């Protein structure tokens, strides 16, 4: 019996390995240093350190940063784009907007594919999908030979109006493959068959440029796992909150951009639901950044408006995650106006915080927490020892002396600025979207999330904080909780009042046939397939659409219109019931259900733990004597008041004064924050 599941999440500092026994639900963890030059090395190291027998593994799931890092660093193989004649500059013209409207000196980055490698060919399809001019095959063949001589590693094909009829793009792909059979070709009518040419071209371009590196990485990792005895598909987490197999990666490589971030959001949703909270906010604080996600009524917010680099949208559906430069390694600094700032600059994995003894002398959040006694002198089970003297020196030189503060006052100021930054991120994803944080629980995880979670909750009046059993590897756990999932969409532009239900139903049936075929290709049995429909709608005259759930069989349009009015009211706080509504697009999420292993449950016995281990911990300008617990010593049903510190292999939990902690049957710590 193969009864072990393994999930791996690659972070900037550590690579986390989560190992679950399917029979008991017991989880053990392994952490190893990340290897940015080749993430696979750290994964294999983690497998060795964890003593994992790959022949006994029933599922191996992985959240990868390969696509994200390739786009951020622009370490991309040479790629080409082929466009309709006259339209090769669509991705350079973009939307003509800027990330900072008032900074006239900050230019938007250049496209991933330079102009010299964006070629054109004669063809023409009108907005109704009628082929007005077939592809000039002689010119197409000439272009294919040019690209072969240039030794391009991938090609994006983006023709105008191909979302209505992809015949010319498909023929261009066939010609390219006849000349360069081993070069991946991305065509926009397959990658993103939607109106708005810039978004379609940009997504296809991103898909093409990351394809060589992602496919190479996946093939190498798949080969190493197979050599070790793993016999099933490698599952790769994508931004939509599901996993895909290597068979789909070849066509949709850009779906893996941001995959590691989505893992944390998935785990946060699962843990929140497990604790009885349909509304929860995920707070994933690592060494370099903090990721915030939101779950409302048991469902994660999903967006299509995201990018890795501003100006070049990737329009695949993605769990909405807001990332800011605030982490354990974020540096404290003084700005030109004389104010204390925190991040986004980071000490990184090396040299890391000053207390890591690797030569950094600038104070970080980790150093401040050491000075305040909130963090002990060892991490990762003793693999990393912290030097309090170096932490104190960094805080004194970076903040205390420049601002005329006492040492602990300076350390609290560093943490307060960091907390304010992170609380603002939560506000952006909640209050600004019409959600009241007081109606949510905060799921705090990541290496540093449990250190700051209670303070963030108090700042936002969130009543409950949930600390998972293994906060530092919770993102890796998320990789174990997902299903195979693909998203499909098709343009459907019509006035809602004039639309027949059978036409919408026919559009959904076409998407469902495509979805069933792809999941069949990935080995999913028909009984394990679940289809979820959405219709994107807007008031006539708008160009941004809102998605509403559609029934398994569309029998009337009025119910869809009503659902749109309600969603518009919730999202934007107004509705116009008398205004005409347009249908913009139909969407389908096709899920291949993967059997889930249950987390281990424990018998709850009410108890109040005690300990002789205490130390001074600073809160609100004064030292408090705090109990120091080992997480493994706490049992289900344990309750205790703050101030207290809970230490474990992968994280440290701070329970401040005026809070109460309780351990539930799944070994989560629930912190109740008093007003």
Share of residues in strands: 25-35%
Major beta sheet summary: 9 strands, mixed
Number of helices: 16
- Oligomer, anyone? single chain
Distance between the termini: 51 Å
Kindly state the mean pLDDT as a whole number?
91
- Label the structural class: alpha+beta
Number of strands: 35
Task: Kindly provide the radius of gyration, computed on alpha-carbon positions and rounded to a whole number of angstroms.
Answer: 26 Å
In the predicted model, the low-confidence regions spanning at least 5 consecutive residues are none
Helix content: 25-40%
Shape: globular
GO cellular component, one term: cytosol
Protein name: Hydantoin utilization protein A, putative
GO biological process, one term: glutathione metabolic process
GO molecular function: 5-oxoprolinase (ATP-hydrolyzing) activity
Relevant terms:
675 residues, six-stranded mixed beta sheet, single chain, 5-oxoprolinase (ATP-hydrolyzing) activity, Dna Ligase, domain 1, globular
Outline the structure in words.
The protein is of the alpha+beta class. Among the domains are: 53-257, no CATH class; 332-417, no CATH class; 483-592, Dna Ligase, domain 1 (2-Layer Sandwich). It has 16 helices and 35 strands. Strands 13, 14, 15, 18, 23, 24, 31, 34 and 35 form a 9-stranded mixed sheet that branches. A 6-stranded mixed sheet has the order 3-2-1-4-11-12. Helix 4 (137-149) packs across helix 5 (167-179). The two termini are 51 Å apart. The relative contact order is 0.10.
Gist of the model:
This is Hydantoin utilization protein A, putative. The protein is an alpha+beta fold.
């Amino acid at each position: 019996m193969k009864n072990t599941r393994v999930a791996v999440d690659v972070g900037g500092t550590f690579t986390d390995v989560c190992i679950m026994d399917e029979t008991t639900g017991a989880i053990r963890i392994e952490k190893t240093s990340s290897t940015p030059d080749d993430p696979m090395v750290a994964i294999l190291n983690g497998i060795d350190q964890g003593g994992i027998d790959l022949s006994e593994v029933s599922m191996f799931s992985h959240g990868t940063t390969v696509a994200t890092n390739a786009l951020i660093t622009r370490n991309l193989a040479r790629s080409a784009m082929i466009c309709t004649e006259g339209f090769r500059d669509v991705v350079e013209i973009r939307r003509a907007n800027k990330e900072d409207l008032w900074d006239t000196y900050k230019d938007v980055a250049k496209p991933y594919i330079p102009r010299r490698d964006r070629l054109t060919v004669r063809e023409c399809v009108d907005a109704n999908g009628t082929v007005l001019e077939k592809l000039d095959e002689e010119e197409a063949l000439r272009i294919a030979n040019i690209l072969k001589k240039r030794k391009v590693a991938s090609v994006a094909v983006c023709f105008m109006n191909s979302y209505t009829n992809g015949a010319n793009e498909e023929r261009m792909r066939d010609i390219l493959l006849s000349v360069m059979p081993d070069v991946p070709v991305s065509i926009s009518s397959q990658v993103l068959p939607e109106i708005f040419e810039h978004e379609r071209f940009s997504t296809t371009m991103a898909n093409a440029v990351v394809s060589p590196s992602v496919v190479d990485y996946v093939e190498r990792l798949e080969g190493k796992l197979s050599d070790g005895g793993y016999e099933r598909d490698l599952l790769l987490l994508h931004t939509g909150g599901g996993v895909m197999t290597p068979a789909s990666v070849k066509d949709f490589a850009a779906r893996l951009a941001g995959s590691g971030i989505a893992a944390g959001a998935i785990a946060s949703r699962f843990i929140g639901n497990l604790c009885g909270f349909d509304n929860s906010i995920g707070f994933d604080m690592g060494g370099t950044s903090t990721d915030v996600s939101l779950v409302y009524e048991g469902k994660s917010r999903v967006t299509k408006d995201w990018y890795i680099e501003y100006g070049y949208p990737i329009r695949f559906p993605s769990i909405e995650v807001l990332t800011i430069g605030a982490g354990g390694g974020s540096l404290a600094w003084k700005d030109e106006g004389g104010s204390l700032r925190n991040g986004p600059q980071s000490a990184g994995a090396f040299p890391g915080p000053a207390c890591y003894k690797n030569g950094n002398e600038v104070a970080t959040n980790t150093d401040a927490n050491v000075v305040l006694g909130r963090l002990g002198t060892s991490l990762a089970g003793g693999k990393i020892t912290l030097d309090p003297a170096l932490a104190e020196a960094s805080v004194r030189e970076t903040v205390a002396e420049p601002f005329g503060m006492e040492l602990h006052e300076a350390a609290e100021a560093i943490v307060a600025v960091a907390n304010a930054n992170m609380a603002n991120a939560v506000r952006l994803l909640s209050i600004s979207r019409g959600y009241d944080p007081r109606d949510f629980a905060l799921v705090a995880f990541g290496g540093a999330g449990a250190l700051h979670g209670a303070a963030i909750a108090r700042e936002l009046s969130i009543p409950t904080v949930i600390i998972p059993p293994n906060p530092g590897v919770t993102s890796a756990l998320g990789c174990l909780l997902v299903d195979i999932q693909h998203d499909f969409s098709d343009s459907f532009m019509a006035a809602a009042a004039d639309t027949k239900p059978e036409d919408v139903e026919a559009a959904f049936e076409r998407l469902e046939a495509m979805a069933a075929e792809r999941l069949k290709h990935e080995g999913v049995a028909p009984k394990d397939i679940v289809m979820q429909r959405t219709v994107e709608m807007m008031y006539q005259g708008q160009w941004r659409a809102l998605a509403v759930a559609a029934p398994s069989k569309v029998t009337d349009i009025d119910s869809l219109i009503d659902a749109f009015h309600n969603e518009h009211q919730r999202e934007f706080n107004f509705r116009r019931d008398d205004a005409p509504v347009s249908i913009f697009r139909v969407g389908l999420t096709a899920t291949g259900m993967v059997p889930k292993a249950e987390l281990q449950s424990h018998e709850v016995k009410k108890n109040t733990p005690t300990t002789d281990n205490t130390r001074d911990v600073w809160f609100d300008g004064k030292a408090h004597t705090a109990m120091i617990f080992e997480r493994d010593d706490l049992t289900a049903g344990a309750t205790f008041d703050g101030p207290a510190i809970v230490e474990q292999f992968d994280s440290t939990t701070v329970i401040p004064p005026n809070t109460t902690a309780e351990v539930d049957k799944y070994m989560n710590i629930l912190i109740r924050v008093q007003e």
